[in-house]
């Protein structure tokens, strides 16, 4: 699946077991001090990951 989807975009593809695993992987790639923009109405798990990272000083959330 990763090869097929990546091939459609002429890029690399990565598959995750869950949406939250994908979200965590994206957040893990952020540099310390990055700014994260998320909507007020989003999946609760996403807002919790964002809030926890902000509390730990990894990024700012707007």
Verbal overview:
The protein is mainly alpha-helical. The chain has one domain. It is 47% helix and 10% strand. It has three helices and two strands. It has helices at residues 2-8, 19-28, 44-55, and strands at 34-36, 59-61. It has a two-stranded parallel ribbon with strand order 1-2. Helix 2 (19-28) packs parallel to helix 3. 2% of the residues are buried.
Query: How large a portion of the residues is in β-strands, by DSSP E?
Result: 5-15%
What is the percent of helical residues? 40-55%
Q: How many separate domains make up the residues?
A: 1
- Give the CA-based shape: elongated
Count of helix runs: 3
Number of strands: 2
Query: Major sheet: size, sense and barrel closure?
Result: 2 strands, parallel
Q: SSE order in H/E notation?
A: HHEHE
Class derived from helix and strand content: mainly alpha
Low-confidence stretches: none
Mean pLDDT: 96
